[in-house]
Amino acid sequence: MRIEQNISMFINFYYIFFTILAIPVNLLLIYLILFKSPTSFQSYRFLLLNTAVNETFLIVFSFFLQIRIISAGDSIALLSYGPSRLFSVEFNFIIYNIYNVFLCTTNLSLIISMHYRYCVICYGRIENTTILRNLSITTAIPLAMLIAILIPPFNFSTVVKNTEKAYPSYNLSNVYGNYGGFYSTTTIIYSINTGILMGIPYLMPIFILYCRRKIFKQINEVQTHLSDRTKKASLDLVRALTMQSLFPMICLIPNVVYFLVSQKQHMEIEIAEYLPFPTCCLPCLIDPLLTIKYVAPYRNFITRKDKRIVKIPTISVAPSSIRTF
């Protein structure tokens, strides 16, 4: 029990620290997208905004939930030790699945962003109807997953029974009170949803690396209509999207490893039950930093602000020192 309390306290501090860092960075990116995007970003900024908004919601929901995931045979227990534990078990279960919707749409938004760059570089343009279609599809799939998984009955009593039987030493009901989760991991709906959630982060790098290869080949080997400046900007965006596609795959490894091991044997490794949920949120801090770094208009705005702050104490009033940008 002492170890569990220490882990829980450490993870609580992690969520507080992570939220304090990640929320301002994402809000800064949203501001840059809305007010500092050039005219040429008229279509692309909606894709950037889609990713940033989804990741902001992910941060909020992860802090609100702070889920401990325990696999017990055919059941998966979801135990909240965040602010949401003040609400009902059903409410927590619904919010957790909404969190999964944003997790899915965030990853899919990176795919359609790369598809956008691929079409612009290789074909010269992309129709707005194509962008809207891609956004609609990547929204419809997670929503369908949400609706399917929330069809009653929830059978939380089965979850509690299986979990208490598998881990009698945990005394979970005394610590967490009522809790719920997925009563069966063998149902078709659960299998499909889990396959999509875990499959996208591992298939996404394959698609993005394929598009990256095509884009680099088009820019380096084929005479395109793009200027050198546009080529450099496109290459930077592709590099950013490549890195952004790899982080979800890496961060999902604790989740996959724990799920596979726990299905074979019930090992009481408490830290492994806490790790999967917070690690999935790490890209929400890394992604906006990469976007700001590799998208030239946003990077230039930040660096100009930094230069102004540095130069204020030593600013010269001589007319010859004035420059117009």
Automatic annotation (TrEMBL):
<dbReference type="InterPro" id="IPR017452">
    <property type="entry name" value="GPCR_Rhodpsn_7TM"/>
</dbReference>
<feature type="transmembrane region" description="Helical">
    <location>
        <begin position="237"/>
        <end position="261"/>
    </location>
</feature>
<protein>
    <recommendedName>
        <fullName>G-protein coupled receptors family 1 profile domain-containing protein</fullName>
    </recommendedName>
</protein>
<keyword id="KW-0812">Transmembrane</keyword>
<dbReference type="InterPro" id="IPR050920">
    <property type="entry name" value="Nematode_rcpt-like_delta"/>
</dbReference>
<feature type="transmembrane region" description="Helical">
    <location>
        <begin position="91"/>
        <end position="110"/>
    </location>
</feature>
<keyword id="KW-0472">Membrane</keyword>
<feature type="domain" description="G-protein coupled receptors family 1 profile">
    <location>
        <begin position="25"/>
        <end position="291"/>
    </location>
</feature>
<keyword id="KW-1133">Transmembrane helix</keyword>
<dbReference type="InterPro" id="IPR019421">
    <property type="entry name" value="7TM_GPCR_serpentine_rcpt_Srd"/>
</dbReference>
<dbReference type="GO" id="GO:0016020">
    <property type="term" value="C:membrane"/>
</dbReference>
<dbReference type="Pfam" id="PF10317">
    <property type="entry name" value="7TM_GPCR_Srd"/>
</dbReference>
<feature type="transmembrane region" description="Helical">
    <location>
        <begin position="131"/>
        <end position="151"/>
    </location>
</feature>
<comment type="similarity">
    <text>Belongs to the nematode receptor-like protein srd family.</text>
</comment>
<feature type="transmembrane region" description="Helical">
    <location>
        <begin position="46"/>
        <end position="71"/>
    </location>
</feature>
<feature type="transmembrane region" description="Helical">
    <location>
        <begin position="12"/>
        <end position="34"/>
    </location>
</feature>
<feature type="transmembrane region" description="Helical">
    <location>
        <begin position="188"/>
        <end position="210"/>
    </location>
</feature>
